[in-house]
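Hi, here's the filled form for the chain we discussed.

Project: internal
Contact: R.S.
Residues: 116
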Amino acid sequence: MARTTIDRLIINSPYEEPKKHWRYDRETRTFELVEGRRPAGYVVATPGSKSFDDPGIFVEIPLVNQIRPRVKAWREAGYPGITSITRRLLAHWHDPEEFDRRRFFFCQLEAVETLI
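And the returned structure, exactly as it came back:
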């Protein structure tokens, strides 16, 4: 159901991969809560617009959107090809027994996984 305002901005846990996102329709200026992760991208002003409420134009970042599923598949496969030290670090960072002292956000762990 499309709506013109968002009543709840935070809809996902910061500790898990996003499961839903608000999709914005530029033409109708409405939001819809949809399943799945929001594509990576950014919004730029509409060329020539001087309007205060310019919805802008979404510019996708294709490389990020290609890398995310590959990293996810690698994670789900148990990180094949990593060294034993890297495996120990990843296990330490994901250890639920350490969550009360230190817990990383999903995006932080995904960034590290992407670098590895």
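Let me know if anything looks off before we file it.
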